[in-house]
């Protein structure tokens, strides 16, 4: 490592902490709860019966390309997380099993860490989208692969986000393609996301 590189990295290291602190505080101010439930199905509206569900258990995370296994309070949970750092002028794609997030160039004003978390054992098509409480200049696309689910039973499948203030699921602009079994939601803001009706 060259001295010039060391000087640059040590000069910008405090900036990373400042950005992380600002992001954390903004999450508390805007209204998404800090306890987002490491389990994407842990939100209170989970059992409202309006989730797209996986028909064969164990297929909720087909196509998983990476992730981590969380341990919370000594209990192992089956939450799988995939994250990526995205810079404002570039587009990025992040995939976690059935969920693909497409961040368009120009959606951000600063370097941002994105994460998709899912519980492949829940049987519901629901995920946690982060960073919480972040508004985007251009909506971020979330593609839901609904193959092998009961989505074909419903004409009005749509993408939704969980409003933690009033504890309800709200629709986002979305496009359902029954031929490819793909639902695309356009999220101007992140909390939890799901495919439902």
Automatic annotation (TrEMBL):
PROSITE patterns referenced in this protein's UniProt entry, alphabetically = PROKAR_LIPOPROTEIN
Superkingdom, natural source: Bacteria
Query: What is the protein's name according to its record?
Result: ZU5 domain-containing protein
Protein source organism = Eiseniibacteriota bacterium
Lineage of origin? Bacteria, Candidatus Eiseniibacteriota
């Amino acid at each position: 490592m060259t001295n010039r590189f060391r000087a640059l990295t040590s000069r910008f290291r405090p900036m990373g902490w400042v950005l992380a602190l600002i992001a954390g505080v903004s999450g508390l101010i805007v209204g998404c709860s800090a306890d987002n439930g490491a389990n994407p199905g842990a939100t209170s509206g989970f059992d409202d019966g309006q989730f797209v569900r996986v028909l064969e258990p164990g297929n909720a995370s087909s196509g998983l390309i990476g992730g981590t296994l969380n341990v919370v309070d000594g209990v192992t949970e089956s939450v799988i997380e995939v994250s990526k750092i995205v810079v404002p002028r570039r587009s990025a794609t992040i995939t976690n099993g059935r969920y693909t997030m497409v961040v368009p160039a120009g959606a951000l004003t600063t370097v941002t860490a994105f994460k998709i978390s899912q519980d492949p054992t829940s049987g519901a098509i629901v995920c946690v989208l982060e960073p919480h409480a972040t508004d985007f200049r251009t909506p971020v696309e979330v593609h839901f692969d609904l193959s092998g689910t009961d989505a074909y039973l419903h004409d009005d499948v749509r993408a939704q986000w969980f409003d933690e203030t009033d504890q309800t699921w709200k629709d986002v602009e979305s496009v359902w393609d029954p031929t490819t079994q793909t639902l695309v939601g356009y999220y101007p803001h992140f909390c939890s996301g799901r495919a439902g009706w």
